[in-house]
Amino acid sequence: MGLVIRGGWVLDERGHPRRRDVLIDGGRIAALGPRLPDAGHDVVDASGLLVLPGLVDLHVHLREPGFEAKETIATGTQAAARGGFTTVACMPNTRPPLDRPELVRWVRAKAEREGAARVLPFACITREQAGRELADFRALRDAGALAVTDDGRGVQNAAVMRAAMREAAQLGLVVAAHCEDEALAGAGAVHDGAFARRFGLPGIPGSAEAVQVARDIALTMETGCRYHVLHLSAKESVAFVRQAKALGVPVTAEVTPHHLLLCDADIPAPDANWKMNPPLRSREDREALIEGLLDGTIDFIATDHAPHTAEEKARDMAAAPFGIVGLETAFPLLYTHLVETGICTLQQLVDWLTVKPAQAFGLPYGRLAVGAAADLTLVDLEAERAVDPAAFASKGRNTPFAGWRLKGWPVLTMLEGRVTWQDPARFALT
Ligand SMILES: NC(=O)N[C@@H](CC(=O)O)C(=O)O
Ligand SMILES: [Zn+2]
Ligand SMILES: [Zn+2]
C-alpha cells in the first residue's frame, strides 16, 4: 500500500503552481498527476499546501564527534527535518576532524541509525585541518565523503591548496573552500566597517576572503579541479567568481540566508548571536550577493548551520565563537524576505535550495519527479509566526532572527517516503 499526498500545489516546469497528487510507493515517487485514484492508499490532505522536493543544505555543522554539547547528528538532523531539509552535508571540523576514512564511515553509520535526514559528510583537505599534509583523498572518497574541505579555516599555503586540487582533479572530487587569509583576518570579530569602529572591535576585511577566492580561481585554472566557494560574503569575491565563470572555470559558489538578508548596519549592539564567519558585511556587499545569486554567479543557498552552546554565545563579541544556526529558519526567512518582497520568484528560491545544490555536487536529489526518491516538504505559505529559538529541535539557540515574524513554514517533511517531521497541530501520521 502506498501513500497519496492529495491536492497540494506542485510547481510545474515553468514554476507555475498546479494542483497535483503525489503517489509514494517503496520510498519513491510512483506517480504525479491531477487526480490519482485512492486505490486503498493512505491519504495525506495537502490542500492549500505547497509540495516541494525535500530541501538540500550542503553546509551544516552537526558537531559529532567531539562537540555533542553544541549539537549531535540526531538533534541537527531533527532541526533539518523541521526546516524542511531532507539532505544535509556536514562539515568535518569535528573533534577529531574527519580526516580519516573510518571517521567518515562512523558519521555515515551513525546518521543512518539516528538521523532524521540524509547526511553526506565532507572530509578534510589536510590532516587535522592543520593546513600542511593532504589527507588521503582516495580513501576518503571510497569511504563515502561527498567532497573535501577544511571549513572552519582557510588553507593558508597556496602550494598545499594546489596539491589538493591536483589530487582532487584526479579523483573527481570537489574541493570546497572556506576562504580566509588569516594574516588579513587577524583577530577580527566582525566586518571591518562602521560597526567595528563604533564599538572598538577588531575587523575582518572583505579582502581576507577575496584574496583566497582569487588565488583559488587561479589554481583551478591551473589544475582543472572542480572548485566550490563556501559562504561567499564579499562583493569582490562575487566579481571574481563572475569573471571566472565567464572564462569557463569550473567554479561554483554558495551564499547563506544571513548574508543575503543582513549587513553589519543591522547589528543592534555587541551580541554574539550576530557573530559568524565570514561576518555580516556592508550593505553594498549584501546587494552584490543578491545580484550574484540572481545572475547565476552564485549557484545556491546553504545555511552554514553552526550551533554553539548558550554559555559560549553569552560571551562578549570578541571572545565568543563564530557561527549561527540556520536550518529551522532558512525557508521562512527567504520566502518572506526574498519572495514576498518580489526580489526573486518562488521557483528561483526553491531551485536554490534543491536542484541547484544537487547539480553542483552531482547528486540525484532535489527534484519532484516520478522515479525520484520520495523526499518531500509540505509548506504552508500563509502560516505566519515569530521565530522562537526556545522551540528549536537544534541544541543551538544562537540566531539573530529571534522574534522575526515570518511566513512559509514547513509543516511536514518526508525522507524516502518516511515522515521525518510533522507539525503536530496538523498531522498525526505514523
Ligand atoms: N561559520 C561559522 O561562523 N562557524 C563555523 C565554521 C565555518 O563555517 O567556517 C563553525 O564551525 O562554527
Ligand atoms: Zn567556513
Ligand atoms: Zn561552516
TrEMBL record:
Belongs to the metallo-dependent hydrolases superfamily. DHOase family. Class I DHOase subfamily. It catalyses: (S)-dihydroorotate + H2O = N-carbamoyl-L-aspartate + H(+). One of its GO terms (biological process) is purine nucleobase catabolic process. GO terms for molecular function: allantoinase activity; dihydroorotase activity; zinc ion binding. Its cofactor is Zn(2+). Gene3D superfamilies: Metal-dependent hydrolases, Urease, subunit C, domain 1. PROSITE patterns: DIHYDROOROTASE_1, DIHYDROOROTASE_2. InterPro entries: DHOase (IPR004722), DHOase/Allantoinase_Hydrolase (IPR050138), DHOase_cat (IPR024403), Dihydroorotase_CS (IPR002195), Metal-dep_hydrolase_composite (IPR011059), Metal_Hydrolase (IPR032466). Pathway: Pyrimidine metabolism; UMP biosynthesis via de novo pathway; (S)-dihydroorotate from bicarbonate: step 3/3. One of its GO terms (cellular component) is cytoplasm. CDD domains: DHOase_IIa. Zn(2+) 2 binds at D151, H178, H231. The lineage of its organism: Bacteria, Bacillati, Bacillota, Bacilli, Bacillales. Substrate binds at H61, L62, R63, N93, N277, H308, F322, G323. It is an enzyme of class 3 (hydrolase). Binds 2 Zn(2+) ions per subunit. It comes from Calditerricola satsumensis. This is Dihydroorotase. The gene is pyrC. Catalyzes the reversible cyclization of carbamoyl aspartate to dihydroorotate. The active site is at D304. Zn(2+) 1 binds at H59, H61, D151, D304.
